[in-house]
Amino acid sequence: MTKTSSMDSALLAKYDGLRVPRYTSYPTAPHFSPNVGPETYRRWLGTIDPAKPGSLYMHIPFCKEMCWYCGCHTKIVARYDPIAKYLAHLRTEVGLVADCIPGRMKVAHIHFGGGTPTMTAPEDFEALMALVRERFDIVDGAEIAVEIDPRTLTEDMAKALGRAGVNRASLGVQDFDADVQKAVNRIQPREMTERTLTWLRENGIRHINLDLMYGLPRQSVESVTRSAEIALSMDADRFAVFGYAHVPWMKTHQKKIVEGELADSYGRWDQFAAIAKTLTDAGYVAVGLDHFAKPTDELAVMQAKGELRRNFQGYTTDESEVLLGFGASSIGQLPQGYIQNAVPFDHYAEAIDAGRLATVKGLAISDDDRVRRAVIERLMCDMAVDLDKVAEQHGLPADAFDEELAAMGDLVADGVAMVEGRRLSVPESARPLMRIPAARFDTYLSTGAGRHSRAV
């Protein structure tokens, strides 16, 4: 599909202006409040069963230069000193959190995000991993993943990643077109990405994800198709395909992007469809909202089993109930709810220097939140949910969501949803709109809609 069908045009006209969450959690981060602070987090940590494998997220919020499309919490640095100081605080935080857990917690997943985690010195990254192994029990076969900017990775760092046990890497590509790269201030020739992949694979890091984007300035259906074809030649296990969210009122550096060079809603839709067709024609399986994986990849396998999960890192095979977030702005999840660290670096550092957990906000979730989270997660992962089954699993009557089902009439008429008894599903043609029916189960949305991304 490279041209928008008449049905697609009608859907875009009606739904693309809606602002809905990406649902990497439920309830979503805009609803976090200071009511959950460091003492609450400390209590929650004290209830963890260390024998059950959990997960760790390490946020390294530094970049060498700003990509103008970026929506992350990151800081541009020209010297290493700020990174070294930050890592010292991060190591201290690891100790503070580990001390609150009644035992040495097993860990099955570790994810380093950013920013650019590989801007750390090789020896500092290895030292941080050594500390993590000292304070936590890393299980055999644990997934250790790192986000990488090929423009800054060195061969020495690739070797350090291998020695540290990293076994999965996610490379930011976005687009291979030189004109598009210039328009977003990210010059990254194809050869640079290929060199990075060679270094990683030579050091035993063979599970690769590539990030692609649509909706960037100067992109076209033809250019994103060429980029996807080039990316396919690199034999990645997975692709993540994200739409650019233009929010210059929130991210002021996005004002450098020329709005007249951005595609309209129909252009964005066509670009996504072109990338999706290119990847699926090559044998990759569509996974959830925006991922594509080889049929043998764990994401595709778990999706086929109905066991795919979604958390703050996106689609995942991670089944842990506990995700501990470390670093400024990082978000964690425990059975009781969510927590988030201070975003400003100085506020984060001040808390750590004082020997306090850096938590500044969060949300204690209710039983109603849990069941709605289960419904939304299945829709986002499987494009379908058996509401009878979810109700039974949570001890609710079978008709618990009949009101929401009855309100799906407009979505069913528009081809965005299908209802069969108490089974709700999203047809393949409406895959990019799956957040719309999911949002019908969100009781918080009316108070936070303005802070979410567009529907397509």
Structure in words:
There is one protein chain. The two termini are 16 Å apart. The protein has 456 residues and is α/β, with parallel strands linked by helices. The protein has helices at 6-15, 38-45, 81-100, 122-135, 155-163, 178-183, 190-202, 221-232, 265-281, 298-305, 345-353, 367-382, 387-393, 402-406, 409-414, 435-439, and strands at 19-20, 54-60, 62-63, 75-76, 106-114, 137-148, 168-174, 207-214, 238-243, 285-287, 291-293, 309-311, 314-316, 323-326, 331-334, 337-341, 359-364, 384-386, 418-420, 423-425, 453-454. Helices cover 36% and strands 21% of the residues. It is built from 16 helices and 21 strands. β15 (331-334) and β16 (337-341) form a beta hairpin. The chain is globular and about 60 Å long. The relative contact order is 0.16. The chain has a nine-stranded mixed sheet, with helices on both faces. Strands 15-16-17 form a three-stranded antiparallel sheet, covered by helices on one side. A three-stranded antiparallel sheet has the order 18-20-19. α3 crosses α11 (345-353) and α4 packs parallel to α5.
